[in-house]
Design a protein that fits this description.
This protein has eleven helices and 19 strands. It has 347 residues and is an alpha/beta fold. The chain has two domains: 7-142 and 278-346, Metallo-beta-lactamase, Chain A (4-Layer Sandwich), CATH 3.60.15; 147-273, Rossmann fold (3-Layer(aba) Sandwich). A seven-stranded mixed sheet has the order 7-8-9-10-11-18-19, with helices on one face. 47% of the residues are buried. The model is unreliable at 329-347 (pLDDT under 50).
Length: 347
């Protein structure tokens, strides 16, 4: 095949044969969307195609759009090109996109993780010739502990804060991370309160996913009522005037970037829990191996280091491509100097 099945241009990832983009970062006529995070599902496309469970999510975020929902593994053709969506395990309703034309198969992962988190649809390996993979955490330094151990620590932290007469505030993205946290909090310890951004998104997905009862914090919610319980809030709430009303409180962040010593201190967080919705180093490598692919394209993350390892150590035909996916940028920025030091050490 002279022309690659998928190409990267100024608007996004493009399949010329079908006249369709995947997760385009500029407005296009037709776009397949992998998941609901703002960097992958942008406003302005004329027509959206995504998994059925992601339809209410992106409608909540983008308003009244023209969108078609597809089932998992449902094949649909556009100008003779076959497409299908497969679970990516990143967050609820997140998908990989399989693209096939005349026997040539490409897979774009979007964002993904291989661990079953008990909420998002479990990652599904998809055989292909060319695999386009994220590598947000594409360094050997990133190795996740089993989720059960992390939530054991989180729930013990919450319980100890109650004993000290303090409210627990746990930060996580309002779509994906927040619902994962809610799913695994031990409600026998106390009540779960939520920031408006978290509650609004949770209500959108609650009809489709089993989640515990939560209580929205309003202007009428008193500090005495909340004391000793736990609040789940987006990272943007940290340091805001909104948070001051809950004194005395203790804060924590659930993020893969908590791997770096000093990241918690730099963000003025009391406690860090290493919990990511992306694959770690081993998860990335195992995912690539499971596809049986020959070619790998590394995007958004430690692309140069990761692709070089794939070429020099594992023998893949691997290269990099630039994208405009920036979901984790706020956390990356706050850990920038630490990350750079780690890159130098791994290099």
């Amino acid at each position: 095949m002279n022309q690659p099945l998928l190409v990267f241009n100024e608007k996004g990832i493009y399949c010329e044969k079908a006249g369709v983009y995947i997760d385009a970062w500029r407005p296009v006529d037709k776009c397949i969307i992998t998941h609901g995070h703002a960097d992958h599902s942008r406003w302005g496309h004329k027509q959206y195609i995504t998994h059925a469970n992601n339809v209410p999510i992106i409608k909540h975020r983008l308003g009244e759009i023209s969108v078609t929902g597809k089932a998992w593994n449902e094949t649909f053709k556009i100008n003779g090109v076959k497409f299908s969506l497969h679970p990516a395990g990143h967050i609820i309703a997140s998908a990989q996109v399989r693209v096939e034309y005349k026997g040539e198969v490409w897979v774009f992962t979007g964002d993904f993780k291989t661990e079953d988190d008990g909420l998002a649809e479990v990652y599904e390996p998809v055989k292909c010739h060319t695999f386009i993979t994220e590598c947000t955490f594409g360094l050997p330094a990133f190795k996740w502990e089993p989720q059960a151990e992390v939530f054991k620590d989180i729930n013990e932290w919450w319980a100890s804060n109650i004993a000290d007469g303090r409210t627990s505030i746990l930060f996580g993205y309002s779509l994906g991370k927040a619902q994962r946290i809610l799913k695994h909090l031990d409600t026998s310890i106390g009540k779960i309160y939520t920031h408006g951004a978290v509650e609004n998104m949770t209500e959108v997905v609650r009809p489709l996913y089993s989640l515990p009862e939560t209580t929205l914090i309003t202007r009428d919610t008193s500090k005495e009522e909340i004391k000793g319980n736990i609040i789940v809030a987006p990272p943007s709430a940290h340091g805001s005037t909104w948070i001051r009303r809950f004194v005395p409180y203790v804060t924590a962040s659930a993020s893969g970037w908590m791997t770096f010593r000093g990241a918690r201190r730099r963000r003025a967080i009391d406690r860090g829990f290493v919990l990511s919705d992306h694959a770690d180093w081993e998860g990335l490598l195992s995912a690539i191996d499971a596809t049986g692919c020959e070619k790998v394209i590394a995007t958004h993350g430690y692309t140069d280091i990761f692709s070089r390892y794939l070429r020099e150590e594992l023998g893949y035909d691997a290269r990099t491509e630039k994208t405009q996916y920036e979901e984790e940028s706020a956390e990356i920025d706050t850990s920038a100097s630490l990350s750079n030091q780690k890159i130098e050490n791994e290099d």
